[in-house]
Amino acid sequence: MIKIFDKSGYANRGRFLGWGSGPDADWKVIFPIFTILLIVIAILSFIAFMNVGSGAFGSDISSTVESPLDKKLLQGNVKYYKEKQNIFESLRTGKETTPDPSI
Question: Mind listing the pLDDT tens digit for each residue in 7-39?
Fold first, then answer.
């Protein structure tokens, strides 16, 4: 059987750009493919970014929201956290209520 050797000395058996014939040939295939893939993804991401700014991917979200702040909900949350703060303060400054197990 006649083998054709490339510059690195590995046998090239007619595979795509010498794929599988050695690590050098493998990297000559892997690196350009992933570089091209990276460039394509970067270009598509930039195009998508530009289209989102112009509203090409759906309706305007701000039109569906009636008010950015619901005052009743906000007041309820403030009241809830004030109660939690009071409980925490009473636990922090109060006397320890855990019984001593050594007694």
Answer: 555 555 555 566 667 777 788 888 889 999 999
pTM above 0.85, yes or no: no
Q: Where are the beta strands (DSSP E) in 1-103?
A: 4-5, 11-12
**Residue whose tokens read 């050594």:** 102
The residue whose two tokens read 């703060």 is: 85
Nearest to 23 by CA among 36, 34, 9, 37: 9
What's the rounded Cα separation, in Å, for the pair 63 and 59?
8
User: Which amino acid is present at 60?
Assistant: D
Q: Are 10 and 28 in contact (CB under 8 A)?
A: no
